[in-house]
Design a protein that fits this description.
This protein has about 400 residues and is an alpha+beta fold. Helices cover about 20% and strands about 15% of the residues. It has a domain of about 120 residues. The strands form 8 sheets. It has a 3-stranded antiparallel β-sheet, with no helix packed on it. The chain has a two-stranded antiparallel sheet with strand order 1-2.
């Protein structure tokens, strides 16, 4: 999966859940309670002398000697000695944190200078803070469908090199702050993803295949592909593999390699056939327009779809009076995400993990089987069913066969 795919997967799937801005698209360790032996402990200036002197004790100690309140009574006592050590993250927890931190850092630090980061900001500001955004990564990464590396690590299709985790997170932030510059995930992230799938074995992404093998999906009706030598796979075109400047066109009787479409050429909605750096807009490839965004402060008027967005940690929400009546004259303003029980007009105004219910207040998400109006209503992130009476359902998962 290349950087463009990493970016577009996250952005495109998130776009389906909420409006886009612009023209385009700890646990805290438990601490055992103990006596205060630190410098702030209350000292009795006139302690009673110990009448039972033990062998080896100092019988000449003056019980009324001045006690220096600034001296630790027992410098060898570690006040944190009873604190439980923070548990080490599992590989799945660590890769989740790496992805969440990379994206959240970009969303909360460079939204004003990067359109990619700005879009992330409009989605992740519902957490209200960078720290909460990172901590909630296991929720929002799954809801926008960006869990490929996480699932691969959990399934053993990728082995995580924990030593490079920090470098990968920083590289992801840089990629979104500066915009994708090259094919493939950031090198720092490729370096920590060790593939385990050999030729002929099932896979989902290229990063799972060893050596020069690629995960070939063409012609497969499954949610997974197969690790194959691209030169021998005959996946597309007479040579079996398309050149870097070509796209695999599967619209005809047999897959054919064709040059990527240039600016002005027709394209489909996903825009995969557009040349790198271009996008498909209303059926035609075009170079993205550099958009200068303005970040709005708390209390400033805002509107969806404008080139001004609320600063990271703020959302654009409707104004209500004390009786819960919508103040149409006030319009919408930037403000902190709303907690449970607070008036709202849309789920995008509520803290992440809450929805705007039929009574117009932020409330808990719905469980599977409950009636829903959109994916944002459901804890599973999926509102489905027969279309007549949609209910929250579990999201579809891809069962990848073991070797």
């Amino acid at each position: 999966m290349n950087v463009k795919q990493w970016t577009m997967r996250a952005l495109a799937l998130a776009m389906a859940a909420t409006l886009v801005v612009g023209c385009s698209d700890d646990p805290d360790p438990a601490v055992d309670a103990g006596e205060d032996v630190g410098t702030d402990a209350e000292l009795d200036p006139d302690p009673e002398p110990d009448t039972d002197v033990q062998d080896g004790g100092d019988e000449d100690v003056d019980p009324d000697a001045d006690v220096d309140p600034d001296v630790d009574p027992d410098p060898d006592v570690d006040p944190d000695a009873d604190a439980d050590p923070a548990p080490e993250l599992t590989d799945v927890e660590l890769i989740t944190e790496v992805l969440a931190r990379g994206f959240c850092e970009a969303a909360y630090t460079c939204a004003e200078t990067s359109s990619e980061a700005a879009f992330l900001s409009t989605q992740l500001s519902r957490f209200g803070s960078l720290e909460a955004c990172v901590a909630g990564g296991d929720q929002w990464l799954s809801l926008i469908g960006f869990v490929g590396p996480i699932d691969a690590v959990a399934d053993g299709r990728i082995i995580l090199d924990r030593q490079g985790a920090e470098a990968c997170a920083q590289a992801l932030t840089t990629a979104y702050c500066e915009g994708p510059q090259s094919e493939g995930p950031p090198p720092e992230c490729e370096a920590i993803l060790e593939p385990t799938r050999n030729e002929g074995e099932a896979c989902v992404d290229n990063e799972e295949c060893t050596g020069d093998l690629e995960c070939i999906h063409e012609g497969s009706t499954q949610c997974y592909g197969t690790c194959l030598d691209p030169a021998l796979a005959n996946a597309c075109g007479d040579e079996g593999v398309c050149q870097p400047w070509e796209d695999c066109d599967e619209s005809g009787e047999s897959p054919t390699c064709v040059p990527y479409a240039g600016a002005g050429d027709e394209c489909t909605v996903d825009g995969d056939e557009c040349a790198e750096g271009e996008r498909c807009n209303y059926g035609f490839c075009e170079e993205p327009v550099v958009v200068e965004l303005t970040l709005l402060a708390d209390g400033e008027p805002c509107s969806q779809g404008s080139l001004s967005i609320c600063a990271p940690g703020l959302v654009c929400g409707a104004v209500f009076d004390g009786e819960g009546q919508l103040d149409e004259e006030a319009g919408t303003v930037c403000g902190a995400p709303r907690e449970a029980g607070v008036f709202c007009a849309d789920s995008s105004e509520c803290l992440f993990g809450l929805r705007c219910n039929d009574e117009g207040v932020c409330a808990d998400l719905l469980e599977d089987g409950e009636r829903c109006n959109s994916d944002l209503d459901c804890a599973s992130g999926t509102c489905g069913g027969d279309g007549v009476a949609p209910v929250c359902v579990a999201p579809l998962t891809c069962e990848v066969p073991a070797p």
